[in-house]
Structures are given as C-alpha cells and as structure tokens.
Amino acid sequence: MQNSTRIWCTEIDWASLKLEKAVRPVVGVHGILSNGGIWDSLWVPGLRDLGVPMSHLNMGALDSIESNASKIANHVERIKRHYGVDKVNIVAHSKGGLDSRQFAESDGSVEKILQLGTPNAGSPWADIVQAGSLALSLLPGNPLVNALAAPAGRQLTVVYMRGYNRSHLLQQNVEYTSVAGHYDAACLPGVLFCQILNLFTYLPTLGPSDGIVPVWSAHALDMPCEPTFSSSGFNIDALHIRLHASASLFNRYRQRLFPGSTACPQARSTSTEPPPAITTGSVSGEIPAGQTRTHTIPIDQSVPTLFTLLYPSDTLGLTLISPSGRRIDPAVAATDPDIVYEAGDIIGGRAAIYALPNPETGIWTVEIAAGALTSPLPYMAQAQLRGPDLVLAGPADNTATSIGGQVTLTATLKDAGQAVAGAAVKARIGRPDGSVADFVLRDDGIAPDTSANDGVYNVRVAGHKFAGLQPVAFSASGQRANGAPFSREVFHLLSVSAGQSSFTGMFSDAGEDSDGDGLFNHLAVNAEVDAGVAGNYRLYGELSDQHGNLHKAVQVVALQSGRSTIRLRFGGAAIFDNGIDGPYTVTALRLSEETTEGNLPAAELAAPFQTQAYRYAAFQHRPIRASGNSSATGIDSDGDRLFDLLEVSVEIAVDNAGLYQWSGVLVDGNGNELGFVSGSGTLVAGRNFIAFRFNALPIGQAGVDGPYYLRDVLILGGGANAIIDQTFATPPFRANEFEGYRGTPTVVTPVPLGPFTGLLIGLTLLGFGLRRLRREGSAALN
Fold this sequence. Notes:
This protein is mainly β.
C-alpha cells in the first residue's frame, strides 16, 4: 500500500523546562476587635501578584489564645487539604501572633510565622485598663466591663503573659519573625506631648512603641529575627492599627514568608522592659444624657501627666479643675501651649485626654458631661504619671491557688525607694460569677504580714469557689511625708485551679531512638504527678547541661484525677549540637491546667532531678551539618582593583570522610538571584570549610549593595545528603566594588587569586557533575 501524502517529522534535541519554586500558602490571623478582612486590601492581592495564595479566618473579637488556636488549627487543616501541602506560613497582627504561637507550639503544620505588633510580653495598657475596669464592675450589665472581662482582655496583660511565657516555648522547626512598630510623633523641640490620641499609651509603655505594644514586648522572646519598623510625624504606618495596612512594611518583610528567605533584614533592638506604669486610682460611673458627673484625683508630684477618660461610644466632655481653681476645657487647652487635648476613637472605644507636663500638686477635679445619648454611658477616668517617686507594686507573677485553698496577696508601697507605712491599701478581686470582693491589706507585723511598717502590705484570702483567672486591682491612698495626698492603682492576676495538684517526687529518664539508627532522637524525662481533678494538663520542663545550655520541652495531656506519669521529650539533635556530655539537670518543671480561658498554674518544682551521664555523641545528629560560621571575601584576579569573584566560605561538619559535592545560590537583599555555583572536594571527618566562588559580574550589573546571601545550599557525599536550612550573610559590600557596575566604580585593594578554600578541587566527581534544577533551565531529552 502506497501513501502519496507527504508527511513531515521532526526530532526534538532539547526542550526548556520551567519549574516554579514551590511556595507555601499563607494564612492571615487578625487581632482583637478585628476580623480577617484586614488582609484583603493589601496582603491578599499583594501576595497573589507574587504567586502566593493567601486565606484568612474570622476568630471573633475577644476570644482566648487557646480557643483561637483551635480555630486556626481547623482553618489550616482545610488549607493543607485544598493545596495538597504539609505546611503553611502565617502572618499575624497583634494578639493573632499569640494565637499563632499557641497553635504552632504543638502542631507541625507551620513553617514560618511573621508577627506584626504582637505583644509577646503583654501590653502595659491592658494592665491599666483591667485594673480600672474593676471599679466599673459594680455597674451590672455594663458593656464596657463585659468587653474588658473577656478572656483576651486578661491575657493581653503583662502579668498574664509573664506567666504564659514561663510555660510555653517556641517550636524549633518554625522560623519566627516578630516585627515591632515604633512610631515617633516628631514633636517640636521642647514639646513633650503631641499626637497623644495616637500615642495614648505613651506613658504606660515608657519607651518605643506602636502606641499599643512596646518594642520590648514584641521582642521579648529572642526570636531569630526581630526587626523594628519605624515611622514618624504624618507617616503613621508604624502605629499599631496601621501595621497590617502599611505597603512599606509589606514590601520590606514579605520575603520572610517566602522559601529560602534571606537573613533577618535588621539587627534586633536593644529595648528592655522598663518599670511598670504608674497610675492614680481609677474613678468611674455611669452618666445619662444631659447630666454631669464630678470626681477627684490627687496629683502628688509635678511630673508629666495624662488625664484620661475612657468610654465605649458617643461623645462625653471632659473638663479639669486644678487645685488652685483653674478650669481647663478644650478651648483653654487650644490657647495654652503647655496643655494638649485630644479626643476621638481608640481601639475598642473612645477617649478624651489632657496632657500636662508639670501639673499642680493637690486635689484635681474631673468633670464629665454628657450631651444627647441613646442610653446611659459607663466611663472610667484616671491619671497616668511618668516617673513619680511613689510607686505601688504587686507581685511579679500570678498568685496561684486552687478551689478551697488560701493564698496571701502582697503589695509593696515605696516613696523614692523608702517604705511607706500607714497607707490605706486594698485589693478588689473580680470573681467569675461577676461579683467583686474587697480586702484590706495590712502592714502591722501580724500574720500573714511578717514585719510592721516596712511598706509591704498583706492579706490572706481563702474560700475560693470558682476556678479561673481572677483580676485583682491593688489600690493605695494616703499622704506622702510632705503632706501631698496620693492615690495609686496596679493590676494583678489571681489564678485559681480546679484541683490541688502536685509532683510526687518520682522521676526517671531514658534515651529514645525512634528511627532505629542507634542514636537517641530524644532524651525522655518521666515525671509522676498527682492530678487534683480530671482534665487537660500542660507540663513544661527545662533541661540544662554543665555549661548552662538550656533545652525546653512541653507536653499537653488529658489526665484522670490521681497519679499519672507525663513524659517530656527533649530534642536529641540540640543536645548533640551543644557538644556537652551529661548528666543533665532538669532545672524546672511547671504543671498547669489547660483551659479555654488560659493556663492555670497547678504545681512547680525547681531543679528536681538529674539524668544519667549520657554522652552527647549518643544523640541524634545529621551526618552533614552547618556550624553557622561563614566568611566572605572579594577577589580581584586581574589587578584592575575591582572584584572579579565573591568567595563565600562556610564551615561544615561531616561524620564520614570522603568525596563530597555541593552547590549554592547567591541572592541580594531583595531575594533576586545573582549566581549559582557548584563544587566538589575531599572532606575530613569533623569540621571543614567549603568555598563557593561566584562570578562578580552579575553582582555589579545588578547594582544592589550588600549584604548578599548564600542560600539553598545542597551537600552530598559520605553516604548522606543535606539541604542546609541556614542563610549565610556576607559583609555589606557595595555594588560598585564589583566588575560590571554601570556607575562610577570604587577601586579596592587587590586580593591575589589563590586556591579554593576548604579543598575545592573541581566541578566534577566520579564522572558526573552536580546539577541544579533551575527555575529557568534546559533539560536534554534522550
């Protein structure tokens, strides 16, 4: 059979294969009094344009960390199924960062968390508002109190987060970034106060902040990356309520959510937690339409002071009357350069604020006026003082007890460091059923007080009927030695667990080899506890070696009442990396009841146990691993005083000597690729340096100054392979130091071309080369 139709054929010698680097979907987590829609205007479309899908969820306005973590878990599980991935990345604003921490701590579904303005150590403003809200508790059905009494309100306090951080840890396999906001109002020279409504937490935070969350709180956990995002004056991007909406922040930190992200774009801040905020006692009430209410507030020292009125909605007027009778209203403040007045919306309500740099001492009157209202409004007023000598302080940590137990509440009153005796000191406790209980603290040397007139006031509280977190407002009033009347108020938390639990003193330890390779994946510590009631419990532990290196572990389990054993697993790889033989000491064990309202401390032991004398080499480790040490050098090979090569040397440890191959990618600070190199060489067992030599021409042509980053490092040999997760940063080279720069170059001192560092001997090994699967590349089709 013949076919007269001409048929064409062709042979394909090669084809272009384009592979996009896989990206993980991003989940947006909002903060209090907010919703998932905050991400729709900037982050969702911005990431979509970069090929990254983003979703978000609504968690309610004021739910607890624990409850929100469960909501995140459900949403993440749906996203994982939808995209067929094992992990997601999270960007979280404000308290959403705490909710995300809780979720990631016990779930392996997160690779990266980017926090924006997260109060990792609480917000001092929350403590102030919580203390003042107890005065409003006498008003039944008060909407302001209902909001402040929600779990989120308590959990955002500094005192709660201090206890939270003592029983929680950062997941080792998660890359955390915490961006703190620092807004500078840029007041004129000599002007102490400006933009006080934007910075109405200026005095409580006592340091750089975004107006709600201090920098020291956002950066409290020594995360690997803790940059500060700043703005000033009319640029309000660094305010707390603007962080998630700032295009500048998005462009600067979005790379932290991408695979192989570069090193942290900024060194960690050095901001530390200052002394607690100082406030006068709160005054409060409820005002109907057309009425006026007056209260007195003593000012005992002429220091910078804010008079603040808080209320939920509508508009209330605030007028001050000084001890000498001067009446200060908004009109007077507008003509007096020493007084600043602002009023308007704040997070969760409205505020009216007067700022006075040097107020008269004595009794001030605050006059609150209501115009047309649909219903009576609750309100709370107080003065916040910057750096007064007289300080009232409660305990640093939560005071803990159990139902039916008793506890001593302690408050300390000092004036310029000297004890203040004879003051009227009280504690008001808010009960879970909505009631309040008032107690008088004494400094008379009669139990529970141990020494009279030492400024330490005590009261024993017993008969607790309800489990949960109970807010405490300590208040003090009296006269200073100079006769000036004073009042002070400070917040505290009383934690009441449902049962009385304890450690029995029975401990043991064992190495766990979970993959059968002869190395311990974990060092397991078993602790027997006697649970007072059935429920969910959290056991947190710290393990230390002889050089003080600390390891942390946590386990959440459901227990029946009575004796049970809980096993904590400390990571073997981390023990190996420190290179210290045992025995190891369990330095702390903390048991708490895990509830939807928060953690309720139940029992604690310090240094209760010492393990067997393990050898560190018995613990799990990767046969190929990076130490983190690296260096970079520019090389001028042709003597024209411009760099022809950029050599990055990285220290690698291997278990087995032999021939190895490696490759890596160089990128600039924007994540743009500048080069790819591969090499091979003989490595000895132990520590070695391997060198990556990049052609300098693309660096100069790109025109982007350093530092540059070596990432996506792949090493194979000795019967093993490794993808190094670390990113290695070069010094801050300038682009005009390299060949190919199109502007005016900067000549450099020549560095003679020498042999590759770390025994780099070629690009091939055993007849084959190490090839890279590139996003844009060619593949031969045979």
